[in-house]
């Protein structure tokens, strides 16, 4: 006859049952508590210094849509290999250990950067790529150029076709 063992899993509420993360997270990063749902008063802990794009958003230097466009470019760069050199020579990634998926990702990043370059210039597109790779800190004087680059990038990703992805301006969240 088998005896019943101890229950597996947590039985008491604790940090894992909240969306605030562990205490160590608050010790290592700048955080703030945000309201998720006004009806239930549920909150979450948001890291505000995860990357330069996050810092720009939380200091109100860019909008939520511009942050989304920059994040989408950053995600595409990671899929393409995660470094600036992955874009330097596209032919190099097509042979050997490179996969078709990686080559496609490199081309998507190149198209996005070229669309910004056509509208804002080569120097601006390089700065945007450095921002997506989290290699630079943006100063207040550079903010207007960054905003126009992120707007151009948002247009490339189709943000101009819809109202907005931001819930902050949504009439249902007011």
Task: Note down, in words, how this protein is organized.
Helices cover 46% and strands 7% of the residues. The model is unreliable at 13-17, 89-96 and 169-174 (pLDDT under 50). The protein has seven helices and two strands, in the order αββαααααα. The protein has a two-stranded antiparallel sheet with strand order 1-2. With 174 residues, the protein is mainly alpha-helical. It has helices at residues 23-28, 52-58, 64-80, 90-93, 100-120, 122-132, 143-156; strands spanning 31-37, 42-47. It folds into two domains: 18-47, no CATH class; 52-159, no CATH class. 22% of the residues are buried.
What characterizes the major β-sheet? 2 strands, antiparallel
- Report the strand count: 2
Radius of gyration over C-alpha positions, nearest whole angstrom:
21 Å
SSE arrangement, N to C: HEEHHHHHH
In short:
The protein is mainly alpha-helical. About 45% of the residues lie in helices and about 5% in strands.
Defining key terms:
174 residues; 2 domains; 7 helices; 46% helix; 7% strand; globular
């Amino acid at each position: 006859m088998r005896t019943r063992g101890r229950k597996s899993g947590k039985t008491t509420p604790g940090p894992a049952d909240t969306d605030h993360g562990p205490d160590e997270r608050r010790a290592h990063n700048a955080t703030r508590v945000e309201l998720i749902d006004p009806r239930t008063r549920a909150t979450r802990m948001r890291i505000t210094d995860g990357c330069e794009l996050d810092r720009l958003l939380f200091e109100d230097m860019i909008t939520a849509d511009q942050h989304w466009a920059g994040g989408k470019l950053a995600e595409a760069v990671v899929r393409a290999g995660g470094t600036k050199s992955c874009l330097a020579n596209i032919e190099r990634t097509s042979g050997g250990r490179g996969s078709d998926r990686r080559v496609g990702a490199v081309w998507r990043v190149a198209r996005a950067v070229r669309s910004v370059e056509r509208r804002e210039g080569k120097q601006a597109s390089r700065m945007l790529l450095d921002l997506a790779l989290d290699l630079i800190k943006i100063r207040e004087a550079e903010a207007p150029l960054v905003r126009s680059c992120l707007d151009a990038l948002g247009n490339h990703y189709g943000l101009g076709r819809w109202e907005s992805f931001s819930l902050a301006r949504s009439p249902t969240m007011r």
